[in-house]
């Protein structure tokens, strides 16, 4: 009987802490799932202070380990190279290793990137790679160092999906897999919760991906996955509907974490396998 009486209380607490009007847009910056009592209590801390604490922690981490923002995993027997961009809320929607295993990406050459500055990768990766152009140059060098890679791909969730589209365009990769991507950066929200305050770093075409993709690079296909019942994510995707190379891939559900929804349906490997095959036939 105790379990039946406690469940509604827990549900009421979650409803109080995660009201849609309060969290709309914040799931880009904070993980939606709570883990344990300490994490639950931490939700009572105002979101701005939670962001400041997390931003300071990540700054310390990247100062202590500058190479942690970009990891290269070469596979000499693979002809495919994937650039994988973490989102600001952490990870790839689910545990990164789970994604890499379930999709089969772990058998290919990988470049794993993390946005320690929580600024849509606009502030670079570390003290040596300090802006978008420097990231582009470094990623091109990664490909040059892997001459066996004849196909290239980008993928990522949320703000990592934004980065997959952005860098996929500049690098002219074969296919981009963007999961619930942000396609229009809200500068006011970013200023409140991001790890950098210099909004002048973000050009208009990098803030609004519809402007960037209006002129196709002649190569890249953009596959955008989102839950059809998540209004904001659907709106972000539909802004790019009629642009060259863009394919919308709506999924059933209402969550921002569409990659988890696809994983639970058992179709993650199928999605990546189909995209790689289409890229090879292009």
Quick tags:
282 residues; 13 helices; 44% helix; seven-stranded mixed sheet; 7 strands; single chain; alpha/beta; Rossmann fold; disordered N terminus
Give a description of the structure:
The chain is of the alpha/beta class and 282 residues long. It has a single domain (2-281), classed as Alpha/Beta hydrolase fold, catalytic domain (Rossmann fold). The chain is built from 13 helices and 7 strands. The chain has helices spanning 2-17, 20-23, 36-42, 47-64, 96-103, 132-144, 159-171, 187-193, 204-207, 209-213, 231-238, 258-265, 268-281, and strands spanning 70-73, 80-85, 109-113, 151-157, 175-179, 221-227, 246-251. A 7-stranded mixed beta sheet has the order 1-3-2-4-5-6-7, sandwiched between helices. The protein starts with a helix and ends with a helix.
Task: Outline the secondary-structure elements.
Layout: H1 2-17, H2 20-23, H3 36-42, H4 47-64, E1 70-73, E2 80-85, H5 96-103, E3 109-113, H6 132-144, E4 151-157, H7 159-171, E5 175-179, H8 187-193, H9 204-207, H10 209-213, E6 221-227, H11 231-238, E7 246-251, H12 258-265, H13 268-281
